[in-house]
Amino acid sequence: MANIDIDGILKELPNDGRIAKTKIVCTLGPASRSVPMIEKLLRAGMNVGRFNFSHGSHEYHQETLNNLRAAMQSTGILCAVMLDTKRFSTFSNQACLYGYLFVKVQMKDNVSLDTGTI
């Protein structure tokens, strides 16, 4: 695993005094996972790289993450990582998996998760 020092990749960037309150999320996949393409995405405003674990191996995603790190290093632009896992989707009226317990979640239900026993 690469050890990236934040100070080593941050560069002084032009600042007009505004703070960004939005995120631009781009899925990094076959057409967008090369270092040159990720550099273009970063320069265009991407600040969250999404990894879709429904497709590809762990090695594939590790290589993409390494490419993202290299692109951040070369551009000096930081980017968060979002992982979209293979687990069940949690939408209303669909069962979701919590440990080994299936729970039915419906519209306007309150759901609370903690590390204690159920």
UniProtKB/TrEMBL annotation:
User: Pathway it belongs to?
Assistant: Carbohydrate degradation; glycolysis; pyruvate from D-glyceraldehyde 3-phosphate: step 5/5
GO molecular function terms noted in the UniProt entry: ATP binding; kinase activity; magnesium ion binding; potassium ion binding; pyruvate kinase activity
The residues covered by the Pyruvate kinase barrel domain are 20-86
Q: What is its EC number?
A: 2.7.1.40
Pfam families on file:
PK
Named cofactor requirement(s) = K(+)
Keyword field:
ATP-binding, Glycolysis, Kinase, Magnesium, Metal-binding, Nucleotide-binding, Pyruvate, Transferase
SUPFAM superfamilies from the xrefs?
A: Phosphoenolpyruvate/pyruvate domain
Q: InterPro entries, from UniProt?
A: Pyr_Knase (IPR001697), Pyrv/PenolPyrv_kinase-like_dom (IPR015813), Pyrv_kinase-like_dom_sf (IPR040442), Pyrv_Knase_brl (IPR015793)
Superkingdom in the source lineage: Eukaryota
The record's similarity note reads: Belongs to the pyruvate kinase family.
**Protein's name according to its UniProt entry:** pyruvate kinase
UniProt organism field: Gossypium harknessii
